[in-house]
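[scheduler] slot 2 assigned
[scheduler] job type: sequence-to-structure, two independent chains
[scheduler] chain ordering preserved from manifest
[runner] begin chain α
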Amino acid sequence: MRLAKARQLAGVSRAVRAMATANTTPTTGLPPPNAERFGTADVCDVHHPENVDVMTTRSVHVAAANYFKDFGGRRRFCGAVSTILCFENNPLVRAALEESGRGRVLVVDGGASARCALLGDNLAEMAAANGWAGIIINGMVRDSEDIAKMDIGVKAIGTHPLKSSKRDKGERDVPVSFANVTFNPGDFVYADGDGVVVASRELEL
């Protein structure tokens, strides 16, 4: 009786070890990246395997921690980068979001101005309808409670109720740098609640 029980327990133990082995990567013993989730942690595990002692690699660059806040209804998003450089004015933001997004992410460098918003609910709604995956803004948004209900990713540094000016257009599809990373047109960006990761190409897990 005891022998049979011991054999049964041994069989269960082997099964548990086999399942654990099947659900870990062979080199690290950690759970494998989740390709369906495609979170920034998964991206870093595969494309930035070095630990914190190596902060920059050839494959990916990680934005400064807690630089952005989430405002959109979609917390996790990714896509090819299109950029805008502007300061306290948003005509190019509107012009860009009027285009077909084709799953892209609009990255707007507003110089971190905290004096007005570069995005409101009307533009965010337009972006969602036109197929943009998300918008990342080095600046402010407004109508944040309404944007939170929309199926689009929106990251920015804060909120401000005042709208921006229309005094000049700014620049479109130029390199922009903020949050300790540079976004180039055509780069791929991956964003979720953990942060933002930038790569020079579309990544696979």
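[runner] end chain α
[runner] begin chain β
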Amino acid sequence: MAPMVVGQAGRDHLTPAHKLRKPMVEKLRRDRINTSIEQLKSLLSPEFLKQHPDSKQEKADILEMAVSYLRSWQQQKQQQQHSILTSGLMTASDGYSHCIQEAVSFLSRCEVNTQAHRLLFNHFQGLQPSSSACSPSPPGSPLHHPSSSKGTGQSGGALWRPW
């Protein structure tokens, strides 16, 4: 018996239908690629004209332009997210200040006059922003900077603690 080459054995099992179908499948794949590149070309044509107004648009140029455009878009999104996070901290600070003002307003209208009521009222009044100072930040936030004048309580004793 003569030795058989493995490559030949693999080709022998292909049916005639498979041999005919393979070029058609490959043509469909190339058509999909070309259609997608044409869609990219139409989407990026204003951008392409800015950078290369007089050159012919080849497939590789269109793909490079798409990659470049997506990278710059990604950087813009990251910068926008960073600015949203930064403004979110300011919004949290503003919300904290508003909450303190509401608590002081509520406690000033309240008729109950216990020691806890007075301590809470004094504590919240001390947290309210004055006209010359910036608005306070929540105690856990990165913007929180406790002032040195709050080291002792309003009554000169120890700090009031809610626990």
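[runner] end chain β
[qc] chain β: The chain is about 65% helix and 0% strand.
[scheduler] slot 2 released
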